[in-house]
Design brief:
elongated; 2 domains; 2 strands; two-stranded antiparallel ribbon; 3 helices; mainly alpha
């Protein structure tokens, strides 16, 4: 029985058909060629689809821009039509020459009244009416004279510039006019400069 078992594997090893082997090899080569062709066509199709996808994106963006342009154009057309309607209404309601002259006269009277009111106002809020204010742009909260000019004492003598008759009396005793007081004996003389 041992002899029979050894013979069976030898039979299976020797059952190779060379013509089938060549057919399988040829079939494998053909399948490899077809697979290579299919891979080439597939990559070409994928590349074409990417290109088409990009073209569709660009076309979509162009269409969106055209739609925005169309919307802007429609808005402009609507504004033009409104303007034409207003112009027509103005022509329909246009005043006569006499009415226009009466309106101008009323406006001139209003202007004169406004000028008077402006003169009664105090634009720089210094307490002096605009009509009397000789310094109309005094900074806020600056003390001013009765003419609206800032109260200043440039030479530091205690007399404001507006009342100072001797403007350069530095570090000396002065009178109410800002002029130096000179004492000679028992009398006082003032020097105006």
């Amino acid at each position: 029985m041992k002899k029979t078992l050894l013979f069976i594997p030898v039979l299976f090893l020797s059952c190779v058909n060379p013509s089938m082997e060549r057919g399988f090899a040829s079939l494998n080569e053909s399948l490899a060629d077809v697979t290579e062709d299919l891979n080439f066509y597939a990559s070409s199709i994928i590349s074409d689809m990417e290109s088409i996808k990009e073209d569709i994106y660009l076309i979509t963006k162009h269409i969106e821009k055209m739609q925005r342009d169309k919307e802007r154009a429609l808005i402009l057309i609507a504004e033009i039509l409104e303007g034409l309607d207003r112009t027509k209404e103005l022509f329909d309601n246009m005043a006569t020459r006499e009415q226009a002259e009466a309106i101008l006269s009323d406006l001139e009277e209003m202007r004169e009244t406004l000028d008077i009111l402006l003169g009664l106002g105090d634009s720089d809020i210094d307490g002096v009416l605009n009509a009397l204010d000789q310094c109309p742009n005094t900074p806020l909260r600056t003390p001013v004279t009765m003419f609206g000019c800032p109260l200043t004492d440039t030479d530091g003598d205690g007399v404001l510039n507006a009342d100072d008759q001797c403007a350069e009396t530095w570090g000396v005793e002065v009178d109410e006019n800002g002029c130096e007081i000179e004492e000679t004996g028992t009398t006082t003389n003032t020097t105006e400069g």
